[in-house]
Here is the input.
Amino acid sequence: AAYDKAAKAEKSDRAMELLVYLSKQLQSRSTKDVQELLPGLVVEDAKGKFRPATELLQPAAGVQDYVQKIWSGEHPCPSESYPTNCRDFLISLGVHTMPSVEQLRDVFELGVTGLDMSVGLAGLVSGLYREGKDLSSLSLKEQPWIVDGNGKVRLPNDLFEWTLRVDALLGDGPDLYADKQVRTSLSPKLKDELGFKQLKEVKLDDVLGRIKNAVKTGTDIPFEVYRWMEQGLNKGWPIADDLTRKLKGKNWVYTDDDTI
Here is the structure.
């Protein structure tokens, strides 16, 4: 009651003194016990406002960089005046160490505007995915939020998952893949679930683009390209007519003397 009174009156020093006292008295109690004993306790935030602990974020070391990239230090967090030995108690009260799905949903609703936000979301979404959180309320497949190598915000299914084989077939065009910082923050399984295009989804036109670019720039065409086309012909893929029509009259086969 004394703490609630001090918080309501926004008497920061008195509320701090009482919270530190409570943390010492309850340090041996479980998080469940603490929340049952002190339900809905408000905590002072970095701007001096008292608000429910569950609205605040005290990011763990592994997610600090991601949080910074999204909120630039403006995320709601506990007051810096709380002593270090009180931080675990704040977490027991309900302060988050990882942004909640609801907090990320707010970010999606505002829109992803650049690489930093995309990298931050990729890291945090991956963390929540590993924890088994329900991400169905996030527009992960329906909204552009993945930045490609050109800095453009794209839908996941606009882009290929980068692998050595896909790179060999399609080349390293920055518009084909997510920015390296983004894609390395996402696990292959999550990228598959998000709808990133896979090797099996490579189409003839994708490969022809690779060939035409190589012809234009005078660079080598990887043997993987010829192998892919041969495999397609052997398996009966309907590409023979397209190959003949689209490459008719063009130089695209390497000879023994390395000319096209």
Observations:
- The chain has 13 helices and four strands.
- The radius of gyration is 27 Å.
